[in-house]
Design a protein that fits this description.
The protein has a domain of 98 residues: Metalloproteases ("zincins"), catalytic domain (Zincin-like, 2-Layer Sandwich), CATH 3.30.2010. It has five helices and three strands, in the order ααβββααα. The chain has a three-stranded mixed sheet with strand order 1-3-2, covered by helices on one side. Helix 2 crosses helix 3 and helix 3 crosses helix 4. It starts with a helix and ends in an 8-residue tail after the last helix. The protein binds zinc ion (2 copies).
Length: 155
Amino acid sequence: MSSEEEEENICNISIIGGRLNGSKCQQLKTSCSHHKKEKKKVRRGGYLKNKEEARKVILEDLERINKFYGFKYNKVSIRDQSTRWGSCSSNSNLNFNFQLLFVTPEEREYVVVHELCHLKEMNHSKNFWNLVAKAFPNYKTIRAQLKSRKILSEF
Ligand SMILES: [Zn+2]
Ligand SMILES: [Zn+2]
């Protein structure tokens, strides 16, 4: 491990109160609980701050793209999910990750097309991908691009 990497793993949060008042935590991030709490708070803040804007752009994409497909969906939710960009439930509700606000418009459109197509094909069969390709012929490139991105845990 380089010293730079080591520094990244040290919690630098200032301690308020107690014997260490005003000094930095300096514990390993993995072993200090208040760092985890802080991270959650930051992430939650990012979600609350951005979800309405995310909803706006995702709904615009959704309505525009669905003019092509003409599928029926129920509720659209914008969520803070750590492992998924989007999902589609068996009762036709669509969920999207608020962090789609921070990817390229094409990557976002790909996720919208992907979830829309699950309304018709609840699997990743050949039929499913053919359906995706109808609106998004270069989906393979964009999908690979999106896969290389990480969903952030703090920002
Ligand atoms: Zn700490
Ligand atoms: Zn899928």
